[in-house]
Design a protein that fits this description.
Layout lengths: L8 H6 L6 H5 L1 H6 L3 H11 L3 H5 L3 H20 L4 H4 L3 H12 L7 H4 L16 H27 L8 H26 L2 H8 L6 E3 L2 E3 L10 H9 L5 H10 L5 H10 L5 H12 L6 H31 L16 H24 L13
Helix pairs in contact: 4-6, 6-8, 10-11, 10-13, 11-17, 12-17, 16-17, 17-18
Length: about 375
Amino acid sequence: MSGEPLHTTEDIRAADPLGADALLAAVPAMNADADAAALTVALRALVPDLDRAAEWSVGAALAAMRDLGILLGSLRRHGVQPLAVVPEALPVLELLGLRTDMVPRDTVHHYTTWNPAGPRRRSYTGHPAEVSLQEAVRTVLPGLGRALDDCERLARLEPYDPCFPVVLDRIARHLRAMVDSIDLTVARVSPEYFAVTLRPYFEEVEVGGRDYPGPAAAQVPLWAVDLTLWQCDRQDPAYDAFLRQSVPYAPPAWRAFHARHRGGVSAVSKLSAAVSWEGADRLPPSLTASAEALGRVLHLLKTFRARHHGLAREAYGEEVRRYEEGSAGARVALLRSVLDLTRENETMVRRTIGRRRPAGAPVGPSAA
């Protein structure tokens, strides 16, 4: 808000406005014992006075939502709707949502990026696999934020501009961490652990008559890159439904980005129009560089999504699954649909390059 000090990620991680450090350190043991009564007492003890909460900075309000959220998810995992047993938390959650301009529940940003590391880490189980999953997402989100800045620049450029491929290559560098993170997740988090142990903590919690899912990885706003590269001018009912569900869980800056760019002209469409207008057997160097750079980014997105789809398919396979849907309400079939859309756009760009080059000329790294 106007006049308040700026909050940084480190400020939020360091903040403990509820004095919750000691109590939350005991949450994994409470969950291991399925002690819903103790969790209820803990939530009731942490609910702050409304007037006190209204005085917090945005950063402190985000930290408070983070800490209350661990208890919300824990109670829900044990079959309890938290606000049914601690109704006094409702006005506080609603106030924190308004104060931070986010949904009145914790999100993946609270659970990972804004979560302190080390002994102050907030977690449901304290298990190394949960920590690995948190860290995998935590390493991705800063790069996505930087990619968002470059997507903003890309939206103002045309494929003939020499800056077009330069910006795309920067986006690719930011996104490479996503491929590394999914590899880390596959190596350290078994599908059985996620499906049986961790997934139940991400169940929906009812707040003010609406259901809000927990801090799911599906809330990671990769859609902002899709929007710029290929999605803003392409209708797809399944993906559009996914956006309607996911965008509200993003921080305000990400939602503002979506509002600015939906209905715009994507990079793929700009390139396609430029190539069609050129009408030559071989692209000029500027368009060739832009097409190859766009292909590289789409290839990275495809690689990440193929691995994510494989991981989700195992976690929601018949052998281990307890739920039909992912932790943000999305089915594995939706992941497959988005993977197919990404692959289609990459293939279209690669064919554009190949069609405009002499036979046998290299297509570039995106063909790998």
